[in-house]
Amino acid sequence: LPVLTLPHWRDSFGEGLTSGTNMQAPFTLYGVDFSPPTYKVALALSLMGEAFDFVVTTPRGDAKKPDYLKLNALGQVPILIDMKTKRIFRQSPSILEMLADRTGKFGGQSAEERIEMREWMYWDIDRLAPPVLRARRHRRGFMSYTQPIAEMYHSEALAGLKVLEDHFVEHKWL
């Protein structure tokens, strides 16, 4: 799969992407341009100051082909490859936790803070990301739902976002 430079990602992540340069990035991120889990990993890499290359992977095409399935038998995005060790990391929460451990950033200062970080990541996977993603896909024309189903996903997305808003009334971070 070709490594592509995505202008809007470069605008968002500054020098994080090394595509088009002669330097070898320490990480290669495979993902879908519009995928929230891919975006989370790209954002974390950028905020942690880690350079990376990005390989565009289509969810119903590339991610289901034998070459990709050798990297990730689950056929999902994102995956992150440590180019030094060639270790492949799968699933965004696991990747985020590994990056926090390696860089010492955004992982919490104590065991209690790390547990709380995991609780929020798992809540996101269970309660926030699915309805937000489904509502977003519907609004952007990627998926078609009946009106009651679309309203249900929208309502669930708003409920999840309200949980976050309520949390931030008394906290500066998750």
Structural class: alpha+beta
The proportion of residues in beta strands is 5-15%
Percent helix: 40-55%
- The overall pLDDT average reads 85
Let me know the number of strands: 4
* Helix count, DSSP H or I runs of 4 or more residues: 6
What is the string of SSEs from the N terminus onward? HEHEHEEHHH
Major beta sheet, strand line-up: 2-1-3-4
Q: Which regions are unreliable across 5 or more consecutive residues at pLDDT < 50?
A: 1-22
Biggest pleated-sheet summary:
4 strands, mixed
**Alpha carbon gyration radius:** 17 Å
How far apart are the termini?
Answer: 36 Å
SSE map:
Elements lengths: L6 H7 L13 E5 L4 H12 L4 E5 L9 H6 L7 E4 L5 E3 L1 H12 L7 H29 L7 H24 L4
Parallel strand pairs: 1-2
Antiparallel strand pairs: 1-3, 3-4
Helix pairs in contact: 2-4, 5-6
